[in-house]
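Propose amino acids for all 259 sites.
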C-alpha cells in the first residue's frame, strides 16, 4: 500500500536543510555585515571621488551626486543582506539592537569588528578603483559644536526611523532608512555620517567624503549619544519594544531568541 503523499508544507520542509530552516550561522552573518559595509563605503567614497571629478568645482552638484549614490546603494544593500544579518552596517545600530534584546551581546564585538574591517576595505577598494593611494589620512576639517550637534541629530534621527518603522511598518524600514540618510546629507551640517565605522574609515580617505582623523572622536561621541537618546526615547514611547527589536533594520530569517 502506498504511503499518502506529503502535504505541500511537508514537501517544502523536506527539501530544506537544517541550516536553511534556522537562523544563518554567525560566520554567515559576519560576512554579510563585512561585505555590506565594504560596499557601502565603496559607494560613499567612490561616488564622492567621481562627483568631485565631474562637477567642475560645483560643490553642491558634487554633494547631490554623492547623496543620490549613497541613498540608492544603502537601500540595495539593506535589501540584499537584511535577511542574513539584519543589515546593521553600523556599530551603534548593533549595540542598540542588543540593548533591546534583538541580538545576543556575545555577538556584538564580532559584529562591530566585521563592520569596521569592511568599512576600511571599502575605502581601500574605492581608492584602488580611482587609482589613489590605498590609504591616505584625510585633511577635511569637520569639527566644532555645530558639526557635533549635526552628528547627534543625524544619528538620533536614524535610530528614530529604525525603531519607529520596525515597530509599525517593518517592510518599509529599508526604504525609510535610505530616504532618511539621503535627506540628512542635506539638512545636517556634517552631511550625516551617523556611523562610527563609517567615520573611522572615512578618516583614511583624503577625498571629498573624508574627515580629518583628529575630528573623528568628536563625531563618534555625538553618534553614540544620539543613538542612545533615540533608543531610550522609544523604550518610553513603545514599552513593548523588546518584543519587536529583532527587526531593528530588516528581520533576518527565523530569528532565534537573543541569549
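Proposal:
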Amino acid at each position: 500500500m502506498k504511503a499518502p503523499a506529503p502535504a505541500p508544507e511537508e514537501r517544502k520542509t523536506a527539501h530544506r536543510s537544517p541550516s536553511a530552516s534556522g537562523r544563518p550561522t554567525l560566520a554567515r552573518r559576519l560576512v554579510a555585515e563585512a561585505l555590506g559595509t565594504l560596499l557601502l563605503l565603496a559607494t560613499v567614497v567612490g561616488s564622492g571621488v567621481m562627483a568631485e571629478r565631474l562637477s567642475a568645482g560645483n560643490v553642491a552638484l558634487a554633494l547631490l551626486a554623492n547623496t543620490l549614490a549613497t541613498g540608492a546603494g544603502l537601500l540595495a544593500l539593506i535589501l540584499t543582506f537584511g535577511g542574513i544579518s539584519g543589515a546593521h552596517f553600523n556599530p551603534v545600530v548593533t549595540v542598540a539592537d542588543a540593548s533591546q534584546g534583538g541580538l545576543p551581546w556575545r555577538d556584538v564585538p564580532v559584529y562591530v569588528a566585521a563592520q569596521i574591517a569592511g568599512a576600511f576595505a571599502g575605502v581601500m577598494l574605492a581608492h584602488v578603483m580611482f587609482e589613489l593611494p590605498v590609504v591616505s589620512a584625510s585633511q577635511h576639517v569637520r569639527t566644532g559644536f555645530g558639526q557635533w550637534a549635526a552628528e547627534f541629530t543625524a544619528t538620533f534621527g536614524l535610530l528614530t526611523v529604525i525603531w519607529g518603522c520596525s515597530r509599525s511598518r517593518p517592510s518599509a524600514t529599508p526604504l525609510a532608512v535610505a530616504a532618511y540618510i539621503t535627506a540628512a546629507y542635506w539638512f545636517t551640517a556634517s552631511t550625516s555620517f551617523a556611523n562610527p565605522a563609517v567615520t573611522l574609515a572615512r578618516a583614511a580617505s583624503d577625498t571629498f567624503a573624508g574627515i580629518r582623523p583628529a575630528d573623528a572622536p568628536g563625531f563618534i561621541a555625538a553618534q553614540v549619544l544620539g543613538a542612545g537618546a533615540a533608543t531610550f526615547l522609544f523604550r518610553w514611547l513603545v514599552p513593548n519594544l523588546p518584543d519587536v527589536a529583532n527587526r531593528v533594520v530588516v528581520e533576518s530569517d527565523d530569528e532565534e531568541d537573543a541569549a
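Residues 8-21, 254-259 have pLDDT under 50 and may be disordered. The first helix runs from residue 8 to 14.
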